[in-house]
Every structure is written in structure tokens, then in C-alpha cells.
Amino acid sequence: CSLQVKGGGIVNIPSGAQVSCGGILTVDQGGTIKVKTGGILRIESGGQMQLLAGGNGSVTVDSGGQVICYGTITASDTLYAKKFSTVQVQSGGQLTLNSGGTVVLDTSAQLTNYGTTTINSGGIVDTKKLSIVLTQSGGTTRVNSGGLLKIWGDATSNSATLDCYGTLSTNGTINGDGSFIIRSGGKLRADS
User: What gap in Å lies between CA 78 and CA 80, rounded to an integer?
Assistant: First the structure.
């Protein structure tokens, strides 16, 4: 598929439906994709989803909905995972958050990374209580200078790497048997 969601446009993916994209999926400023409960948005290997800057453009994943990425997601706007929803970056997949790019994980939502998640300057992963950021075997989560990974739930690295040049802020738990590297200029901030 190749699809462009223009400003004011809305694409609904209902329960039981799956939209698979091996082409370019663009969400313009003011455009919206809504993945409903039981719906799946799947970015195939070689496929790209671009969330363009400017505000009000977004992908919203309802409880029980999923975004599964084997290709590339590049965000300069918001991907909002509501309670009990899942965003998965599979092996070979990439999630890149540029300035204005935000992944918001609501209570009990999960970001699972088997591929590469990169948070560049001005990019944010913002979690709520009981949400999970899980970097699995072979996966890398990298916070570049000016990027922010804000943990209110749990961050886990299972035989994977969390590499921080920016800020890792936590009110939750960080654990795992992988590598946690705070690089020169990077910050680990543990709040109570």
C-alpha cells in the first residue's frame, strides 16, 4: 500500500481488521490513523510510515490494538498507545523519533523492541505508570543527545542494549541482563 492521510483525514482500522503496508504511509499535519481494539497496523519490511511535523497529526492505538513494524517508522509527531495496547518493532525494523516525535505509552501499554529504536534530539518516549518499554534480544534502544526516554513504568533489556547519549529519566524500574550504557553527555535521572 501507499497511502497519504491529509490534514483532517481519518483512517479507522476496526476490530479484526489488519492494514499491511509495504509502501509509504504518510500522515500529514492534522491527519489521523486510529487503530481500534483488536485492529492491527502492520508496516512490512521495506515499508515506511512517516508522521510529519506540525502537530495534530497522529496514530492512536486503542486498548487491544497493535502497531507492528518490520520496516521503518519515522516520527515528527505523536504515536499514542492507549491502555493495554502494543507497539512492536520487530527484528530489522526501525522506529526513529525526531524533533517533535513522541511515543506516549498510557497505563499498561507496551513498546517492545527487537529492532532499533532511536530517540533523536527533541524526540520523546513518555510512559505512564505500569507501562513497559521492553528491548528484547538483539534489539537496541538509543537515546541521542537531546532525546528523552521517560520511564514511569518498567524498562527492561533482555540480552539487548540501551545506549544513552541523552536523558533516561525514571520513576519506575530499570532491569535486565543486557547492556545499559550512559555515554559522555548522557544522563540517568532517578526520581522518587
Answer: 6
